Amino acid sequence: MDAGSADASSADGTGGSTPTQICTSGVYWSGLPGPTMDPGDTCQSCHSTFQIAGTVYPTAHEPTGCIGAAGNRLSVVITGLDGRVQTLSVNSSGNFYSTQKVVFPFHAKVVTPTGERDMTATQSTGDCNYCHSPTGFDGAPGRIMLP
């Protein structure tokens, strides 16, 4: 996701090298199943009922399994092609997910009390961590980040 007018497909400043992955929280998933499981991993590979799922992080190159951003006023807002808006809460590991139908393609943004980070393009897959991996895939600059 991008901040303000920055382009989500812009270079990440690594000059083509593999970015260093740093777990900002310093805490990794405990291995226990539940809503806080596997932060940063692809969600729909196991949870096919999720229409939208992913993890929010403080920085772009966080390793899979690292606990992401959390906060009771942090959310991900999804707007489907039909105009329907879903506001998804982000749990203590940084994960968000929804089983409610989404009309693709959709727009997404991360919202905090201090700002928003909007995606610049519509998306046609709800497995957000698939593209928003530690190094980024298919035009994503890395992880879904806080504004």
Ends distance: 9 Å
Number of strands: 7
Shape annotation: globular
- The helix/strand order is EEEEEEHE
CATH topology tier name of the domain at 52-145: Immunoglobulin-like
Q: Describe the largest sheet.
A: 4 strands, antiparallel
Sheet-strand content, in percent, reads 15-25%
Based on secondary structure, the structural category is mainly beta
As residue ranges, the low-confidence spans are 1-15
Mean pLDDT across residues = 89
What is the gyration radius calculated from CA atoms?
14 Å
The CATH class of the domain at 52-145 is identified as Mainly Beta
The helix content, as a percent range, equals under 10%
CATH architecture of the domain at 52-145: Sandwich
What topology, given as strand order, has the largest sheet?
Answer: 3-2-5-6
